[in-house]
Write a structure and sequence with these properties.
Layout (H helix, E strand, L loop, with lengths): L7 H6 L6 H12 L2 H9 L1 H13 L3 H21 L1 H16 L4 H30 L4 H22 L5 H20 L4 H12 L5 H25 L3 H13 L7 H23 L3 H23 L2
Helix pairs in contact: 2-3, 2-4, 2-7, 3-14, 4-5, 5-7, 6-7, 6-14, 7-12, 7-13, 8-11, 9-10, 11-12
C-alpha cells in the first residue's frame, strides 16, 4: 500500500541503472514480502555487486573497491536509514487507517523519493571513484547491456501494441501490488480497478523515453569522465547534477506531463484505498506492522 503512493512508472524504472548501488537497499526492503526482508537486506551488498559486474565486468581491483564501499554503505544504511524508514512506514499506516486525500498520497510519495535521494547522495562519492577507473570497453559494455534490457522491457510493456495492451500491463502490475498490501480483490474491485486504469494515460511510452534519456546521459557522463579524467570533486559534481534530474525531465513540457502523471497515480492510489474493505485495510496495516518490526530489528543488528 505504501508504494502505491509513489509514481507507478518511477517505481518500475528507478532502479535500472548504476544507481542500483544506492536504490537496491531501499527498493529491496519495500518491494519484497516481509518474510524476505531480512534475507534480501543481508544479501543487498552481494546483489548490488553482482548487478554492477553484469554491466561493467569489473576488474579484480574494481571488484575489491566495490566490495569495500558496499560494506561501508550497508553499515551506514543500517544505522541511519532503517530507523527513518520505520517513520515512513508508520506514516503509511496512518494512510491505510484513515481517509487519505490526493495531497496525502503526493506527500507520501515525495517523502519516499527524498529518502531514496538520501541514499543516492551518500553513494555519489563511491560511484565517482568507481567511474574514474572505467575503461572505454566497460562503458561500451554498459551501453550494450542497456540496449539489450530496453528491448526486453519494451516487449514486457507491450509498447508496439498500443495503449490497450499497455493498459493491460499496467492493470496487472497494479492489481498484484494492491493485492500484496490489501489481500485478494473481489471481481467487483478488479473490474473497478480495470476501469480506473483504462481511464488514465498509461504513460508507458513517455516513461520508457525517460529511461532512455537517463541511460544516454549516464553513458555520456561516463565517456566524458573517461576522456577528460577530471579531478574527483568534478566527477562528484557531475554525478550530483545527473542525480538531480534523474527522475524528472528538465524540458518544461515533459516536466509538466511527468508531474501530471504523478498526480494521476496519486489519484489512483486514493481511489484504490477508497474501495477497499475494513478487513483489507487491516491486512495492509498488518503488512506494515510486520515491515516495521523487521526494519527495527535489522537496524539493531551488527
Amino acid at each position: 500500500m505504501i508504494l502505491l503512493a509513489l509514481p507507478l512508472n518511477f517505481k518500475i524504472h528507478m532502479h535500472r541503472s548504476i544507481h542500483r548501488l544506492a536504490l537496491i537497499l531501499f527498493a529491496a526492503l519495500l518491494l519484497q514480502s516481509c518474510s524476505a526482508v531480512r534475507l534480501g537486506y543481508s544479501n543487498a551488498d552481494s546483489l548490488a555487486r553482482w548487478s554492477i559486474d553484469q554491466y561493467l565486468d569489473l576488474s579484480p581491483e574494481q571488484d575489491a573497491l566495490t566490495r569495500e564501499r558496499l560494506t561501508r554503505l550497508l553499515s551506514w544504511h543500517r544505522k541511519t536509514q532503517l530507523p527513518d524508514y520505520v517513520t515512513v512506514l508508520r506514516q503509511g499506516k496512518d494512510f491505510a487507517a484513515g481517509q487519505p486525500t490526493v495531497s496525502d498520497a503526493l506527500t507520501l510519495g515525495d517523502d519516499l523519493i527524498r529518502r531514496v535521494r538520501v541514499v543516492a547522495d551518500q553513494t555519489t562519492p563511491d560511484i565517482a571513484d568507481l567511474m574514474a577507473t572505467l575503461t572505454p570497453a566497460q562503458i561500451d559494455r554498459m551501453a550494450a547491456r542497456f540496449a539489450d534490457k530496453n528491448i526486453d522491457l519494451a516487449k514486457d510493456m507491450r509498447l508496439a501494441e498500443g495503449e490497450a495492451a499497455q493498459h493491460k500491463v499496467r492493470y496487472k502490475r497494479l492489481l498484484e501490488r494492491s493485492e500484496y498490501w490489501f489481500g485478494n480483490f473481489s471481481s467487483e474491485q478488479e473490474n473497478a480497478l480495470r476501469r480506473m486504469v483504462e481511464a488514465q494515460d498509461p504513460g508507458s511510452q513517455f516513461w520508457f523515453e525517460e529511461r532512455l534519456r537517463r541511460q544516454r546521459e549516464l553513458v555520456d557522463l561516463m565517456r566524458q569522465v573517461q576522456r577528460e579524467r577530471p579531478p574527483r570533486e568534478r566527477i562528484i559534481k557531475l554525478l550530483r547534477d545527473y542525480t538531480a534530474r534523474f527522475d524528472l525531465p528538465s524540458d518544461p513540457a515533459r516536466l509538466a506531463r511527468a508531474l501530471a502523471m504523478r498526480r494521476a497515480s496519486a489519484e489512483l492510489s486514493v481511489a484504490i484505498h477508497a474501495m477497499t474493505t475494513p478487513a483489507q485495510r487491516a491486512h495492509a496495516r498488518q503488512k506494515l506492522d510486520d515491515l516495521i518490526h523487521d526494519m527495527a530489528e535489522l537496524s539493531k543488528a551488527e
